[in-house]
Specification:
about 475 residues; 3 domains; alpha/beta; two-stranded antiparallel ribbon; Rossmann fold; single chain; five-stranded parallel β-sheet; flat
Length: about 475
């Protein structure tokens, strides 16, 4: 089946999601304990008889929880790294703590929490840093031990030459990293002789794209002594298309967690490797904005959700929400939330309407779809049916701005270059959504609009698209 590899092996399984959720709950509990300890220390050793107005203390606690939650999601700090050192972990936690202090400090003055002393905030972040850092070091030691015993392993394909022997040995010996060498691609006689009996070895020049499509590979590690720009460009593109992690061996450490972007200069064929931090400021702001905005929007729009839910139930039988499996970041499957706008058996009726499809490509569009209810037409006309996707944004499955999440059968019909839509989180709205008379845009042009968004992304473009979406919503344009 075409591009089945992308869909059948998502990078984050349901087990991993549950694991991260447990870490979140555990660390949130430690955060609250840290605040209680900080209050005790401050009131007994620094500010005798410290008293905080009850509503201000309650407000500060809510802000503390919200800030911790947003920063945890935005920085993905609860994820378990495979090769991270304790020193790197401490550095990340230091940065996390400093940003937390700045945010709480700013919110104290912005919301006039006069009885919450700055010293209490300083003591809190210090206590939090100590407690959570210790907890993470202990947890990571346990996880590494878990990998040593053969659990949570990543299948790795190594692109090697004679220089790669020490790195291959490191991958095999360092069992706490959790790497299982699936196969090696090489021309080196020494590597073939040494590992040919234990591992699958492919000749250099083998169809790498076919191997990645047909085999279950989690990561590709390029660890040759001499870097071939063209080879790196092709391999990284193959990996990106099907959601596989690509690592370039660093001279600093065999598996130093550095991400590389491949860029060309002046439209030439010269490939340049650019070291890019995994949490640059723009991505950081986008993630924080997604979580904060979706959280606030869900709270303030809850009366609207209730009203629309009542309208849907009165109009037709069935649930208020329609949950549909979509394909997200790098092939991850998730359930997208929408207000139900069709009759309950709409999916079964689709086969009878295939001949009426008014869109090209793998998507289905029909202007006067008989499956849509009366309330559903209003919701679609105004775009209100998309509001529940704020839940997906809050869960981290989607972003406010990004390419629309496709259905699985649509992805199976994508051309290979179109799979790059899955290289970013899907969004509630994107460039296609704000195009006038968007339903007359061809599928090919739609895909090119999404590629243009990905290639030219910046935080200001997201802000512009958000404003255009609000304008489209108010005028009901494009529906």
């Amino acid at each position: 089946m075409k591009y089945l590899r992308t869909l059948s092996h998502p990078l984050k399984t349901k087990i991993e999601k549950s694991k991260y959720a447990l870490f979140d709950i555990f660390e949130l509990t430690l955060t609250l304990i840290s605040f209680q300890l900080a209050f005790y220390i401050t009131s007994n050793y620094f500010i005798s008889g410290l008293e905080i107005v009850p509503w201000q203390k309650f407000t500060f606690l809510i802000l503390l929880i919200a800030t911790w939650f947003v920063l945890s999601k935005a920085t993905s700090i609860a994820k378990i790294p495979r090769t991270q050192r304790n020193l790197t972990l401490i550095f990340q936690m230091t940065r996390f703590t400093f940003i937390t202090f700045l945010i709480l400090f700013a919110l104290k003055y912005a919301l006039f929490l006069a009885t919450v002393p700055v010293l209490l905030i300083a003591v809190y972040v210090t206590v939090m840093f100590i407690i959570i850092s210790l907890a993470r070091i202990i947890t990571y030691r346990f996880i590494r031990s878990y990998r040593v015993h053969g659990h949570n392993l990543h299948n790795v394909l190594v692109l090697a030459d004679g220089f790669s022997d020490t790195i291959i040995e490191k991958l095999r010996d360092q069992k706490d990293w959790g790497f299982r060498i699936h196969s090696i691609v090489t021309n080196s006689k020494m590597i073939k002789a040494k590992y040919g009996n234990d591992l699958q070895v492919f000749e250099e020049g083998s169809n790498l794209k076919k191997i990645l499509d047909e085999q279950v590979i989690d990561e590709v590690i390029y660890c040759k002594k001499h870097i071939n720009d063209k080879e790196i460009s092709n391999i990284s593109r193959f990996c990106n298309e099907v959601g596989i992690i690509f690592r370039l061996q660093s001279t600093i450490s065999p598996l130093d967690p550095i991400q590389f972007n491949l860029k060309t200069m002046n439209s030439s064929d010269q490939v340049n490797l650019v070291d890019v931090p995994s949490n640059n400021i723009s991505i950081f702001l986008k993630n924080i904005g997604d979580i904060y905005f979706s959280m606030l929007a869900l709270i303030f729009l809850s009366p609207v959700f209730l009203l629309l839910g009542i309208m849907i139930k009165i109009d037709s039988k069935g649930p208020v929400f329609f949950l549909q499996e979509r394909v997200g970041l790098r092939g991850r499957k998730f359930k997208v939330f929408k207000f139900r706008t069709m009759v309950v058996d709409a999916e079964k009726l689709l086969a009878k309407l295939k001949a009426e499809n008014e869109a090209d490509g793998p998507v289905f569009k029909m202007k006067h779809d008989p499956r849509i209810t009366r309330t559903g037409r209003i919701l679609r006309k105004t775009g209100l049916d998309e509001l529940p996707q704020l839940i997906n944004v809050f869960k981290g499955e989607m972003s406010l701005i990004g390419p629309r999440p496709p259905l699985e059968h649509e992805v199976k019909e994508y051309k290979r270059w179109q799979l790059r839509r899955l290289s970013v989180k899907p969004g509630i709205t994107c460039t296609w959504q704000v195009v006038p008379d968007r339903h007359n845009v061809s599928f090919e042009e739609w895909m090119k609009l999404d590629m243009g968004y990905i290639d030219n992304w910046n935080i200001f473009k997201d802000v512009k698209l958000f404003i255009k979406t609000l304008r489209t919503f108010i005028t009901a344009g494009g529906h």
